[in-house]
Amino acid sequence: MSDPSVEDPVVHDRAPKVPLWLQLKTAIADMIVKGGMRPDDKLPSETELCNQFGVSRIVVRQAMSRLVTEGLVYRHQGRGAFVAKQSEDSDFVGRIIGFSGDIELRNHTVSRFILTADIRDPDPRAAKALGLGPGERVVFLRRTMSVDGVPRILVESSLVESRVPGLLHHPLENRSLYAMLLEHYGIQFEGAERWIEAASASKEEAQHLKISKGTPLIKIESRSSDRTGRHIEYFSALYRTDSARLHFTIRPEQGR
What we know:
Layout: H1 20-34, H2 46-53, H3 57-69, E1 73-76, E2 80-83, H4 99-104, E3 110-120, H5 124-130, E4 138-147, E5 150-160, H6 177-185, E6 191-200, H7 203-209, E7 216-225, E8 231-239
Antiparallel strand pairs: 1-2, 3-4, 4-5, 5-8, 6-7, 7-8
């Protein structure tokens, strides 16, 4: 049972275009993180979740099914749903959950430092990835993100400006970007393409990540799309692998 001292996340007050099951999925993930739940802790039953959040059993099952698919929750036949153990490997490359959400679910602290935040014309790579035409602009963010005080990733993000008006007025250092996009703009990424290659740290990149120049890194490029298939975010990131590995889960394709 969830801790009654922890304030229940609000489901119905989120952006109206966000499906109820998705709002509930986010609320349950918040319950796990903010409520200090540990691996193998039992989650409330379907009936309890229905009563707690005022939603139907179908909505609860949809939300729980997605949490199970993403590896955040596991089910035990006849006993209910439980918090899944999160390894020290980082799964964000193989999920849509995002770096901050992945790390926070492992009970680590993520801190963010904004290096650049502005609205600009996209560079050719971002424009092509996002399918932008002449005159379309992006919100550009360059950030370092640290795990328990140690810099882990340096990331440059470009988001279609017309889809996130006023984004720069929000406190970007205080919250997960993906959580903010869901709450304020109703944007939930449903798909992503990612490319990975080897890289080495330049002098400036090394300073931001607090490593030596030339240290091997993994470069990750990504473009993410919403449930309509529209590309909204493109990012390029440099990831340190001396303190954590990247982990992928490969699932069989349907029909095989």
